[in-house]
Amino acid sequence: MCTLNVIPANYGSYHQMYRLDGELVAMSVIDILPHCVSSVYFMYEKKWEKFSFGKLSALREVTLAREMHEAGVPDMQYLYMGFYIHSCQKMRYKGEYAPSYLADPEEYTWFPLEKCRPLLDKNHYAAFAHPEHSLAEPASEPIAGPTPALPEDVLANTLYVAGFEGRTISAAPVTDADEWADETARQTILITLGALGEKLAQEILLHFAYDLS
Hints:
By secondary structure, this protein is α/β, with parallel strands linked by helices. It folds into three domains: 12-78, no CATH class; 83-133, no CATH class; 152-206, no CATH class. The chain is 24% helix and 25% strand. It is built from five helices and nine strands. The strands form three sheets. It has a four-stranded mixed sheet with strand order 1-2-3-4. The chain starts with 11 loop residues before the first strand and ends in a 7-residue tail after the last strand. The mean pLDDT is 88.
């Protein structure tokens, strides 16, 4: 049995405890989000491995989404199972549930898995909204394109880790970083910030680290 018998009243993170004759045999971590139950992590006692507890937890989480939907949350309609790597055999089980959808990596719109599989089978990078953007082989060189220009006020509010003192982190505008003075590094920073978008760029803390091995 699963001990989360009460429908969650708030969004957030929860544990579902699976007990058999009073013994804790499995536990899942889930997030209750607008529109979906998000499956974060699942663990179980190894001796129960042959009973496919992973599938049991997925069915329970689907049921939970349906229970919340029927209890008066009409937008609660989905189970989000996280990342899907087509070449990873251990992730193929996610495609056994139907209907399943994958998010397009460029437009973040959803496409039925059955329509995505042919592109995933023959491409290293698959774009579902624009199949012509798919790549059969890994990109050997960065895709050429203009470096995005960001407003001065955005750059002033984009911070990086300038140093540490004990347990305190000091931050400063990214334009003060030594990396900003290097043209190649500056271009990389701008491309990264452009991909994040102006709003998110001002909410993160950049940390420049190097592999010296």
